[in-house]
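Input for the complex:
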Amino acid sequence: MAWWRRKKESLERTSVEQKQSLPKGLWSKCDACGEITYTAELVQNLRVCPVCGHHHPMPTRERIAAMVDEGSWQELDTELRSGDPLGFRDSVPYRERIVKAVKSAGPGDAFASGIGSIDGVSASVGFFVFEFMGGSMGSVVGEKVTRVFERALERRIPAVIFSASGGARMQEGILSLMQLAKTSAARARLREAAIPYISVCLHPTTGGVAASFAMLGDLILAEPKALVGFAGPRVIQQTIGQELPAGFQRAEFLVEHGMLDQIVSRLEMREHLGSLLRMLGPRAAAQVVDAQGV
Amino acid sequence: MTVKILEFERPIVELERQIQELKRVSATPEMSLEITRLERQAAQIQRERFASLSPWELCQLAKHPDRPYTLDYFGELLTEFTELRGDRRFADDPAIVGGLARFEGQPIVALGHQKGRNTKENLYRNFGMARPEGYRKAQRLMELADRFGLPVLCLIDTTGAYPGIGAEERGQSEAIATSLELMMRLRVPTISLVIGEGGSGGALAIGVTDRILMLEHAVYSVISPRGCASILWKDAEAERTAAEQLRMTAHDLSQLGICDEIIPEAVGGAHRGLTVTAAAIQESLRRHFAALRALTVEERLAQRYGKYRRMGHLEVVSESV
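Predicted:
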C-alpha cells in the first residue's frame, strides 16, 4: 500500500504546479471550457472567455476601469482604515492580517467607493474588493457602503454597488454584524427619497452582504453563474446532509426562483446599467440631456 | 421538568441535593440551623461562580435546554396574547411566534424566535431556526404594529437563520435584508431583548430596534464560535478560544456600545427562576417603553438612525493615498 500512496501524492503535486503556472504566464486556460487563450486578449475581453463566455475573476482595479466611464472615477473615503476593536487573534493577529491584505490588495480595505459616470450617468458607486480578505464587511466596508447611499441622497444621483463578498468580517465580531443594520438604514433613506439603487451581485455574494443591501436594490442584477445566497453551500450541505442540486445558488437558479431581475454579461454591463439608470431616474436622465446640451 | 446539568452547575446542584436530603432525614433544631447555613453557602457559591463564568460557559448557559423560551416569557409578561400566524405568501413558520397582546395593559405586538423543549417540539419549531416565511411573518406583524400605532417587542433566541435548500430557494437573504430595512422605518417604539442565543443575521432580522437589551447570560455574535473556529482555526474544536475572541457576552456588547442594558437573571440563571427574571424584564421594558413613547415619531426615527449610523470602529489616516 505504501508505494501506491506515495505515487499518488507525487502525481497530485505535479498537476497542481502545472495548473498554477498557466495563468501567470502569457497564456490562460479557461476554467470552464479548457480553451487556451492569450492572456492579454482575455484581459482585453474583460476576462470573459472568448470561446465559452465564462466570466473569470476580475481584479477590482480592472473592474472599475471597465464599469466607470474613462476619466470619470473619483475615489473617495480613502482615509478610512480598519482598527482592531476586539483585539482579535486567531492563528494570526487581525492587525497582521490587515497589513498583509493592504500589501497585496491596497490600502482601501475591502471596498472602493466614489463618484463616477456609468455610460454617461453620474452615480455614487461602490465596488467590493474581493482580493482584500474575501471582500468581508467590517466597520470600514460598512461605513463606505453607507456613504455611497448617503452621497447618492445628498447629490440626488443614483447608487450602484458591485458586491463580491463572503459576508461579515468575523474579526470585528458584533460590530461587523451591525454593519448590516447600518447599511440597510442608509438604503432605506434612499428608497424613501425615490433615488434609484441598482445592486450588481458578482461571484460570490453571500452571508451578511447578501442578507442586507445586496438584496435591497430597486433592481438586482448579477453576472452569469455568480453564487448568490445567504448560507454557503458547504454549510448547507453539512446541515442537511445531502447533495445539493446542480446549479444551486447560482445566478440562473436565483432568476428562476424570482430573486434576481436579470443576468447581465460583463461585456454589456456598463451600457446596460446606463440604459436602466436613464429610465429609472428623471434626475439622471435630465443630466444626460444637459450634457448633450439639448 | 427534566433538568439538564452543565459542568459548572454540578457542585451547586450537589449541595442542593444534600440540603434536601438533610431536610428529609432530620428535624432537630441543630440540624435546621445547619441547613440554613448550608443554604446560605450554596447561594453564595452560586453567585460567585456565575459572576465568573467564561465566555464559553455562557455560550452553554445561553442555550441551556431548560432555559425559558419566548413563549415562557410571554406567559409571564403579557396578557391576552393572541397568536397571529402565517406570512400570507407561502407558509407559517413556527420557529418565530408572534401576535397581539397587552403589556401592563397597553396593547403591543410581541414576537420572537421559539425553540422546542423536546425532539418532537424541535422538529416542529426547527430548533428555533427560522426560514424566510418566519421573517416575512415578522415583517407582516411589524407592519401591522406600525399601522395601528402599537409598540413592538422582539425576543431574540436563535442559533441562526436556517441554512437549507428551500430557505435559499425562497430567498433567505432577501427576507432578512427586507426585515432590516423595514425595522428602520417603523414609526412605533421598538425594543429587542436577547433572551438566549443571538445568532448572527437570523437574530438581527428582528433586532434592529430603538433599544437592544440582553439578559445577563445571553450571547450575541456575528457567527457561532464553532463556525468561526472551523473557518479561522480550521478546527471546530477551537470553539472555546473563538468564543473568547468574538467578545459575544452581554458584558462585551455593553462595552462595545451595542447593548443598551443588561437585565439581571435569577441566581443560577433564568431557568432557576423564571418569575424573578421576568419581573426584572418587566421593570426594564416599562422604563424603556415609557422613554420611547415620550419621543415624537421624528425624534424616534432620527435617534434610531443615529444609533446604527454610529456603530463600528474606524481609524482615519490624514494622508489619503
